[in-house]
Amino acid sequence: MAETTRPPWSRIARTLAVGFGLHLKMMTRSSFDGLLGVLWPLFFSTVAFLMFRAGAGGESLVFASFGAAVMGIWSSTSTSAGSAMQRERWHGTLELLVTAPVHFAAILLPVTVAMSALGLYSMTATLLISRFVFGVDLPFEQPFSFAVALVATVASIGAMGFLLAVSFVRYRTAWALGNLLEYPVWLIAGFLVPLTLLPGWVRPISWVLAPTWGVDAIREAASGGGPWPEIGLALGLGAVYLAIGVVVLETVLTGARRSGTVALA
Amino acid sequence: MPAVVEAIDLHRTYRTTTGTFRRRSLEVEAVRGVSFAIEEGELFGLLGPNGAGKTTTIKMLITLLIPTSGQARVLGRDVVEDAHWVRERIGYVFGGDRGLYERLSALDNLRYFAELYGVDPKRQRARIGELLELVGLEGREKERVEGYSRGMRQRLHIARGLLHDPPVIFLDEPTIGVDPVGARELRRTIAGLREAGKTVLLTTHYMFEADALCDRIAVVAKGRIVAEGTPRELKERVSDGVVVEIEVYGIEDGKVEELRSIAGVTSVAVEDRDQAQVVVVQSAAGHEPTHDVLARLDGVALGRVTTREPTLEDAYVALVTEQPVAVDG
Predict the structure, then answer these.
(1) B45 and B86 share a domain?
(2) How confident is the model at residue B288 (pLDDT cuts 50, 70, 90)?
(3) How far apart (Å, rounded) are the C-alpha atoms in residues B9 and B302?
(4) B322 contacts chain A (CB < 8 A)
(5) Given B207, B235, B263, which residue is the final one in a domain?
(6) Measured CA distances, B238 to A42, B219, B229, B241 (Å)
(7) Of B15, B92, B100, which has the smallest distance from its Cβ to A99's Cβ?
(8) How far is A155 from chain B (nearest CA, A)?
(9) Which of A2, A107, A260 sits opposite B118 (nearest CB)?
(10) B301 falls within a domain
(11) Is B104 an 8 Å CB contact of chain A?
């Protein structure tokens, strides 16, 4: 019954697409998660507005609004990448996924990219609240490059979530790591505060974080600048995360099979 | 013909910790040298109580756990070295509520796993339809799994395990928690797998289930195989002895040990029944232990005493309670 004629890339591409659709469907079916989806953007945009209204206003508010919007994508991915693996453990499906005859990366990646894509809703809501509740005049100078920057940001944050999730497969309590990373990245990736205000030693850390370049690209595209170098860097870093994750995953899975932590809740 | 599934002196140790401030690392030996071989088309049962090592053994065979030592082969390939090859050719079904995406429909669950198990996209729809019919879920496939009864979930599990039409199927306590009518239907489905030429490894702690379904049974206790044979052979092991059941009201462990030391006694088990306990003493052929047993129970409040012929259940209890336990190394 198992097919042998399709090329491996075609099978992996299909597995990624089916996995993405299924996980997105599953995530959108929880009314509690839906409630959070309404509350979080309100929180992000309020924080950004209150922080910057008292300051320079104008451009700062625009800067913060786009930053707050990407915060939604990052928060959705970082916090749920860990809980997703834990949820697979509780459901008892992790064992089935690990023993499926397909590379585990093709199973894991759609989960984190779906989470990242779900963050798009949060982003849209945050921008709409900024515009219509707080009256921030948001520019959209280059709609096409803005859209490309958005897709690049979602994909690279999804890849970063994938790298995090790799550790969650092996270590049962690693989900806490996702929560731990949520707030520092807000700061270090320059979502709310320009990187120039951060100490010099923090900058190299910012440079290796894909969200830094993603949010930069979105801001550049919105304001009419040239977002392409930033888009390239975000995608490049995403590809690096992906490559590291795929290589490490096999070792991690062998470790989990040796220690018996796949099945333990 | 080489065996389809082979376990060769399999061992599996888990490391666990105790204590909060002064943590101590402990090693628990879940499987201590299990060996067996299953021929093509055979339905082989691993029978044993909870914690006997059945599930750990099955998890090593399905490539989920790496054995601490020993070797396991499926269709002639090593499960550690050729894990991917083995995974393409085995199906794994376990009992209980877990292992399904509750928020999705049965159809979505099957579509997803069909993809993961590499079922040809052109064949997926037809295959899922066949399996839904096989397990009796046609017409209910668009409902969310969270609304399914345990029996329906279990049938869905079986459908999932068969999606890629594997020649070897591992069933880990598939009828656990299912009502008698549902369990009977599941057993019928399992029997159908053997008729279809599949090689099946079934774990269960129900003696009658193993008896009804299996060609051969290995009884597992405390990580070891304590008996292996056909159901008939296992029954014959206890067909000559006598079983004495004594109702008691409070019995100390020391007294139970005394009963075990009586000549001819092969096993002693204590079962709780309401406020009393029932001491079940089995003896070997040619021994009538009633008099000696009652003498050793002097001072214990006794109720009814009955003597009867042993059943298959007694054979199982004797095997899992009386096997020698080696000192941990």
Answers:
(1) yes
(2) confident
(3) 45
(4) no
(5) B235
(6) 73, 14, 13, 6
(7) B92
(8) 22
(9) A2
(10) yes
(11) yes
Judged on CB neighbours under 10 Å (0-12, 13-18, 19+), B301 is: exposed
Q: Which residues of A touch B121 (CB under 8 A)?
A: 14
Which CATH number is B9's domain given?
3.40.50.300
Closest partner CB to B63 (pick from A29, A99, A260): A99
CB proximity list for B230: less than 8 A, separation 6 or greater: B215, B216, B217
Domain with B299 in it: what CATH number?
Answer: 3.30.70.260
Provide the H-helix boundaries in chain B.
54-61, 83-87, 106-116, 121-134, 150-162, 180-195, 207-213, 231-236, 253-260, 290-296, 312-322
Contact A1 B123 (CB under 8 A): yes
- Nearest-Cα distance to chain B for A87, in Å, is 10
Low-confidence ranges of chain A (pLDDT < 70): 1-6, 33-34, 37-38, 54-58, 170, 172, 174-175, 262-265
Q: Do B291 and B148 share a structural domain?
A: no
B146 in reach of chain A (CB within 8 A): no
Residue finishing a domain among B235, B268, B288: B235
What distance in Å separates residue B185's CA from the closest CA in chain A?
24
Q: Within a domain: residue B221?
A: yes
- The band of B323, judged by pLDDT with boundaries at 50, 70 and 90, is very low
- Note whether A2 contacts B117, CB cutoff 8 Å: yes
Mean pLDDT of B119-138: 92
For residue range B75-124, list pLDDT tens digits in order: 999 999 999 999 999 999 988 778 999 889 999 999 999 999 989 989 99
CB contact (8 A) between residue B98 and residue A91: yes
Does A6 lie at the interface with B, CB-CB under 8 angstroms? yes
Structure tokens at B109: 């669950």
Q: How high is the pLDDT of residue B34?
A: 94
Residue B327: pLDDT above 50?
Answer: no
Instruction: Count the domains in chain B.
Output: 2
Considering the domain architecture, whether residues B251 and B139 belong to the same structural domain is answered as no
- Does residue B316 belong to any structural domain of this protein? no
Task: Note whether A101 and A14 are within 8 A (CB).
Answer: no
Residue B51's pLDDT band (boundaries 50, 70, 90)?
confident
Q: Are residues B223 and B271 in the same domain?
A: no
A131-173 tens-digit pLDDT: 888 888 888 888 899 899 989 998 999 888 888 888 777 676 7
**Interface check B286 vs A, CB under 8 A:** no
> Domain of B17?
5-235
Give the CB-side neighbour count of residue A29, counting CA atoms within 13 A.
13
**DSSP code of residue B260:** H
Asked whether residue B48 falls in the same domain as residue B118, the answer is: yes
Distance CA B182, CA A228 (A): 61
Say if B158 falls within a structural domain: yes
pTM of the predicted protein model: 0.81
